[in-house]
Protein 1
Amino acid sequence: TQVVQIPHDLVVKYGHFVKATEARSIIFVSENTNIPVPSVLLVFKKENVTYIVMWLIRGGTLQDRWEELSNPLRDEVMDQFAGYLAELGSLSSEGHTPGPLDGGKCEGQWWTQYGAGPFTTYRDLLAWLNRKLQQSARTSPPFSDKYPLVFTHQDLCPTNLILDDSNRLWIIDWGMAGWYPSYFEYACIRSPEAFMSIDRGWIPAALSRLPNYETEANKLEAMRYALTFLPFS
């Protein structure tokens, strides 16, 4: 995947792994929330490569700017972040199937490197998760349907958060977004994969502002054996 700035304050994201559903997710969030996201101008496919043309967002990633921020400004930024997740959590999943908006496979760290599904119902999604939990030889209780499906980014890390010159936070890179159980965002932020790639000070600041889903996040972590070694069973 490549992101290239072109004339007239535009950027193009393209590659064999870029999908039009990312643009669809960005537009959906833009139309249904007040979350600052890129403005999509054009989506097209050429020689099996998808291109998404968007307006440039001027600023720096939170990854680059976190260390220089004062504690009060960090609090302000993270309060914005928490507000955005609350907005996503308030969106109704009625009429939507689990997973990405195009009804395709679920992708992300909890879905094996090959993806999973597509799932037509929440029950089907939970059955898949519980099978992976059982295959990992764990004794924890199964996942239940008491948690609603919410619109989830699945890759919220400082490299996908841009702080502009007015200290307004923007969320980019919606390629894995979709309708997932409400604990998914929490689990993605606190996962070991996140700890390996970003400043650890950001993770406690983010998690402290979210509902606590430690129990469900631990279940997802317990699935990793099956996700790695039994992706198709």
Protein 2
Amino acid sequence: MSLSASAAQTIRFATEASYPPFELVDANNQIVGFDVDLANALCKEIDATCTFTNQAFDSLIPGLKFRRFDAVMAGMDITPEREKQVLFSTPYYDNSALFVGQQGKFTSIDQLKGKKSGRAERHHPQKFITDKHPEITTVPYDSYQNAKLDLQNGRIDAVFGDTAVVTEWLKSNPKLAAVGR
């Protein structure tokens, strides 16, 4: 991102605040997280003010193209399709993925054969699970939060998600555990 304070006194950022620890809404209804901290540091460096808007993930690129905001700070994988539409910064976080299930129910990925695993459609790990583990039935979700709710309520057996996100779940929910780690 190349901006100067004279070009933009206020930089309008958009994100989907449902991807902790990177973007989330706190108890005070404020958008917070690693990406917000990074955006604020960038704004401080160029003496600009940041504002943040919570948007549905699928509306981030269209909103940027229609200039509803100036930049997006979100856990967004760089894909050829997206690169045709917008410019990306150099990646600043390398993420991995893992399965999470009910504590004590599964100890290996092999035990998920024939089971239902949720995955967030927006993230690249979905390709890994469908390519490398076709024996696991995948259930697409629009967000990790909805997948987590279905996991907690027994509607699916596991969730395949970004390690940073599901690790946050494990910290706050002792009934969940990593599978095959």
